[in-house]
Amino acid sequence: MNYKLRSSVSIVDSGGNVLEFFKTNTRKSIKIHVKSPMIKNIVTHLDGNLSFNEIVQCYNLQGEEQQLAILLSYLKEKSIISNDALVKDREDYFKYRRIIHFLEDYAHSDELLLEMWKNIRKSTVMIIGLGAVGNWVALNLAQSGVSNFILMDKDIVDITNLHRQIAFTAADIGKSKSTVIARYINHFDPSIHVLEIKQDLTENNLCAVVGEKNVDLIINCADKPNVDITSRWVGKYCMKRRIPHIVGGGYNLHLSLIGQTVIPFESACVNCFEEQLKEKNSLDGLTVKRLDTKNRKIGSFGPMCSIIASMIGMEAIKVLSSHIPPDNVNRRGEFDINTMNLKYQEFNRLSTCEWCGYEKN
Amino acid sequence: MDWGKIYKIKDSVDIYLVDETYIVAYFMNTRQKKKFRVSNGSVHIIEIIDGINNIENIYNTYCLKNGTISRKGFSTFFNCLLKSGLIIEKSQKHILSSSELKRFNRQINYFSEFLSSELAAEKAQKKLLNSVVAIWGCGAVGGNLAVQLAMAGVGTFILIDPDVVEESDCSRHVYFKQESVGDKKVESLADYIKSINPAIKTYISYQWLHPNADLSEILKKATFLIDAADEPYLGYTANLISQNCVPIKLPHYIAGGFDAHLASTGELIIPYITPCAGCYSTYFERVLSDWKPEHHPIKNREKEMGGLAAMSLFSSSFACIEIIKYICGLKDMKVAYKPRAEFLFNGMKLFNLTPSKDPNCKICGGADHEL
C-alpha cells in the first residue's frame, strides 16, 4: 500500500519537534513529537505515490525504518493517513465522495471505512411525520447515501405547509406528502427505495405497518395527538424490537427542542426521560390553575425547524454508521432563538425503568 | 395609553396561576417562561382581556365586578402586560393579501411573539416580501439559504454563481436533480424557488467574485446581500463583499459551512455596528498567529474534502434565523447580533468566537459614523 496524507488534514509545524495534524472535517487536532528531521520531512510529503519500501529507498533512510513504520501505522490508525483504498473503487464513490471522506475521520483502517459506508448505504430509515423537520431529515439522509426509507404520513400537502416544509411546491398542493417526498429524494438517486405508509401513527399500528421488515433507525416527527404520546408509542415499539430511535423535536410546542437519541438498553429510553421530566417539571405542593385564555394557536418558523432537523440528521449518520457514537444520548437540548445558543439537560438511564430497567419487577 | 384599542392574550402564550400568588407565562413559540407576582385583581383583569372589548370596556367590566380602581393603576398594569409581551394589539385591517395571509399565517403568528401588535407582525412579513436578497455563491449553503428564505417569504432574489451542476453536488445541493447535471446552478435554483412560490421574482448572474468584478448593478438593486462563495476561499470573498457593502451601508451575511468550517454559523454584518469582514480578518490574524500550515502534498485536495448535507443545513438555518430576525426587526440586532461560532459534529455544541470591532479596520474603522 501507498501512504497518503489525507486531503482534509492540515499539518502545522508547531516548533520544538511538534507536528500538529488538524482534521478539518471534525476540527480535531492531534499533536505528536517527531525528533528526526528526516521523518518529519517524509511525513509532510506523503503524497500517496510511494510504498513503505519506496519511501525508505527514496529518502535513503538508514536506521530509522522502524521508527517510521511505527509512526505511519499510528497515523493510519488516527485516520491522518488515508484509509480510502477500498472505497475508492466503488461505483458510488464519485457521487458520494464528500460523505465518504467525512466518515474517514472516524476510520482507523481501510476495512472500517468501507464497513461504515456500506452500513449507511444499505440501511433503512423510517421517518414518522413528514413536516418541517421530517422532510429535511429525509432529504439530508438521502443525500448522504441512505437508500431505503419508510415514510409514514397520512396528510396531503396544504398551502399553509409551504412556508416551512421543504420539498413541497405550489404544484404539489393536494398531493400525498409521502408521495411528493419519495419523488423528491429520487431526484438525488433514482435507485432509492421508498415504502410509503399513508396512515396516521396510532398506539398499536407500528407492528402492523412495519411487520418483519428490518429497520435501522426510526425518527419520530409525529405530533398528533401530541409529541409526548407519539414518542411513547414509537419508543415502546422500538424497545421491543431493539431499534435505535430519535425523538425528533422542532414541532408544535417543542419548536426549539432537540430530542434525544435512544439506543435501546444502552441509553436512557423515552420512559426514563419521562420519569425524570415529571420530577423536573413538577411544582410540588403548589396549586396550579391554567387561566382561561380564549384561543390557543401556535406559530411556526421554518429555519427553527430545519436547524433541529440538521442536528437530527447528524445524529442519524452516527447511528447508521454503527461506529460513531451518537452525542445526544442521555440528554435533550434546546436552541434559544434569542441568544442563538444551545443548552442541554442531562438524564440518566433508570435502573427501575419499566421499559429498560434491570431492577424492574 | 389609547383606551379605545383592543388587546388579546397572545395566541401562543399559556398562563398558569400558581398558589394564587404568582402567574407563570409560557411562550410556546420560543419556549420562554416568565414569572410574575400578582394580586387577585390582576388575575381577573387578565381573564377578561378577550380580543373583542377595548381597554375602556375592560376597565368598566372590571370595576363593575370588583369595585372601582384608579385609571392610573389600571393603565400601569396594562402597560406592564404589554411590555412583558403577554398581550398583543388586535388589528382591524390587514396589509397583506388573503393568499399571503394564508400561506404565512403560522409564521406571522410566530413573529407576533416578538412584537406588540398583530399589525406589526404582518408588517414584519411584508418586509420579507419587499426584500431583494442577493446571494453570491449558490452551492450547498447558498442554495439552502435561497430555498429557506424563499419559503419564508423573501420576494425577490438575485442569484449569482458561474458554476454548473455536477453529479457530486447530489450530496450537498438541496435543489439537485440528476437531469440538471451540466445546467447552470443559478438557473436550476431559480426554477426551484419559483416552483415553491410562483410570486417570487429572480434575477440571475454568472459572475465570478474577483476584485475587478462590477458589483454596481447588484448593489443598487439588493436590500440585503449574502456571501456564500468560498472560491478561492471564504476570507477573500468576505473581505471583497464587506469592502463593497460597508461604505453604502448595505447589511450582509457572511455564510458559514465551507471546508474546514463545515457547520460554522457565519455572521451578520450591519455596517459600522457589528464587526465587518475586515475586523474578522484582524481577529483571525491575532488568534491564529501561530497557525502556519505546511504546504499540503496532495494536488487537487479539494476533491477529497468531507462534508454532510446536515452540516450545511445547520449553517444555512442559523444564518436564515439571523437574517430574518434582522430584516423583520424581531430583535434589535444592533445589540442582539451573534458573532461567528463553530458547531462541532463531535459533541454537538457551539464554540463561540469573540471578535470585536477593529478601530483601525481598513473597511469600517476610523471614520466617525452615526449609529
Automatic annotation (TrEMBL), chain A:
Naturally occurring in which organism (per UniProt): Sporolactobacillus spathodeae
SUPFAM superfamilies the record matches: Activating enzymes of the ubiquitin-like proteins
PANTHER family given in the database record: TRNA THREONYLCARBAMOYLADENOSINE DEHYDRATASE (PTHR43267:SF1)
Domain THIF-type NAD/FAD binding fold, residue spans: 117-347
Name of the protein described by the UniProt record: Molybdopterin/thiamine biosynthesis adenylyltransferase
UniProt keywords, alphabetically: Nucleotidyltransferase, Transferase
GO molecular function, one term: nucleotidyltransferase activity
InterPro entries: ThiF/MoeB/HesA, ThiF_NAD_FAD-bd, Ubiquitin-activating_enz
From TrEMBL, chain B:
Positions of the THIF-type NAD/FAD binding fold domain: 119-362
InterPro entries: ThiF/MoeB/HesA (IPR045886), ThiF_NAD_FAD-bd (IPR000594), Ubiquitin-activating_enz (IPR035985)
GO molecular function, one term: nucleotidyltransferase activity
Pfam families: ThiF
Keywords: Nucleotidyltransferase, Transferase
Gene3D superfamilies reported for this sequence: NAD(P)-binding Rossmann-like Domain
Protein name per UniProt: Molybdopterin/thiamine biosynthesis adenylyltransferase
Source organism: Sporolactobacillus spathodeae
